[in-house]
Amino acid sequence: MEAILTRHLDQDNPQNLAAYQATGGYRSLNTAFDLKPEKIIETVEAANLRGRGGAGFSCGMKWRLRGADAPSPRYLVCNLDESEPGTFKDRYLLYGAPHAIIESVIVSAFALQAERAFIFVRGEYAKGGHRLIQAIREAETAGLLGRNLGGSGFDLHIDVHLSGGRYICGEETAQINAIEGKRPNPRPKIPRPSTHGLWGQPTTTNNVETLVNVPHILMNGAEWFRRLGINGGCGTKLFCISGKVKHPGVFELPCGTPARELIYKHAGGLDNDERTLLGFLPGGASTPFLLPQHLDVPMDFDPVAEAGSRLGTGSLIILDDTTCPIETVLNLTRFFARESCGFCTPCRDGLPYLVQILNAIATGNGSADDLALLDELCSTIATQSFCAFAPGAVMPLVSSLKDFHEHYEQHIITQRCPFDASRKEAV
Ligand SMILES: Cc1cc2nc3c(=O)[nH]c(=O)nc-3n(C[C@H](O)[C@H](O)[C@H](O)COP(=O)(O)O)c2cc1C
Ligand code: SF4
């Protein structure tokens, strides 16, 4: 398979502009400048490039809906916050291919006619953020960035914003507040950032992996990109695989690769061949579980949704039959409770309540009424909270109540975690 997103990652000195250009880097700028912005947007839409930040929305459609007549100044935000447990793909691009990020931001900003772009980098990736700043300076010195860049008549300034470090800063409206120097609470859905974003101006946010595809689409065409995928998917995808597998890591593979191939071929299978698969989260910490019967589902947005979950960030977290699903869900819910921005009551107070109940069940102190209470609380939290954080936070828990119902019952009836014994046997 042709690697696109990871093709520069083995380069000796990824910060070096000359080395990047020697392997074809920045060539897409001329291709982009020869095209009209509308033509670029049309090509990206025809390629069916879907957002890699979680929701899978069509990138080309998002750009087209923003409208060519949007008033200046217009902003592009490249989202490299990546703070969700189990998702660790964007850091590969940051540390391994900073010039590929800059090139993709330039051509995307040109398509959107955005005069200023921000790359929002997770705080813990500070070293990568500083290297990215160095690479931006290098590109500016070479005339690839700044006023009349590459002689195109187009001006672009790129800033790197290092996050103060909260998960909610990945949500696009909270991120806009963070860039403006405000407390990063999410904003109301209306007015949309596409018309009233940064400092009230038109703003488009995309995940970094989404954007890094754009230069390749411009150089090779929409049809080429579509054909890179399999089983109906388009392009390639950076899949993160973690949990109970032999070789956890990031794998660039065709969009639509079945889960079975990801887990058993590329990640080497379960770390102990004696064990069996219990289930997996297909798209990161805020997606519903899939089960062994879903192993042949193509890992692409629509098939995973049809199977009852979400492709999310394409990050598979694997549980084997020695992993307690309740402890796993408790661990994730603890994370979400800690990361709630605190702005609305159902999320701020509801998530710690879930942690309390789950903890009681996991430690053998649960009661028969707890399952109905968990169900009811999740429904209230998901529907009554202000932003998409809360519905995502309860997704693994809600699906576990259905998929692992007997495990919950066992914990409650026996007043202990049955996995303690099986874990001891497995050692
Ligand atoms: C709580 C929360 C956290 C998010 N974190 C990220 C993140 O770290 N990176 C990201 O690209 N998108 C994240 N998103 C999605 C963004 O709000 C936005 O939809 C995305 O950056 C758009 O890019 P895309 O269309 O290219 O996927 C998050 C959403 C929510 C609700
Ligand atoms: S749902 Fe949670 S993260 Fe979102 S605004 Fe409410 S408290 Fe903040």
TrEMBL record:
Residues 326-371 form the NADH-ubiquinone oxidoreductase 51kDa subunit iron-sulphur binding domain. Residues 181-204 are annotated as: Disordered. The keyword Iron-sulfur applies. Gene3D superfamilies: 3.10.20.600, 6.10.250.1450, NADH-ubiquinone oxidoreductase 51kDa subunit (3.40.50.11540), NADH-ubiquinone oxidoreductase 51kDa subunit, iron-sulphur binding domain (1.20.1440.230). Pfam families: Complex1_51K (PF01512), NADH_4Fe-4S (PF10589), SLBB (PF10531). GO terms for molecular function: 4 iron, 4 sulfur cluster binding; FMN binding; metal ion binding; NADH dehydrogenase (ubiquinone) activity. InterPro entries: NADH-UbQ_OxRdtase_51kDa_CS, Nuo51_FMN-bd, Nuo51_FMN-bd_sf, Nuop51_4Fe4S-bd, Nuop51_4Fe4S-bd_sf, Soluble_ligand-bd. The keyword Metal-binding applies. SMART domains: NADH_4Fe-4S. Its cofactor is [4Fe-4S] cluster; FMN. Keywords: 4Fe-4S, Iron, Iron-sulfur, Metal-binding. It comes from the Bacteria. NCBIfam families: PRK13596.1 (NF010120). PANTHER family: NADH-QUINONE OXIDOREDUCTASE SUBUNIT F. Belongs to the complex I 51 kDa subunit family. This is NADH dehydrogenase subunit F.
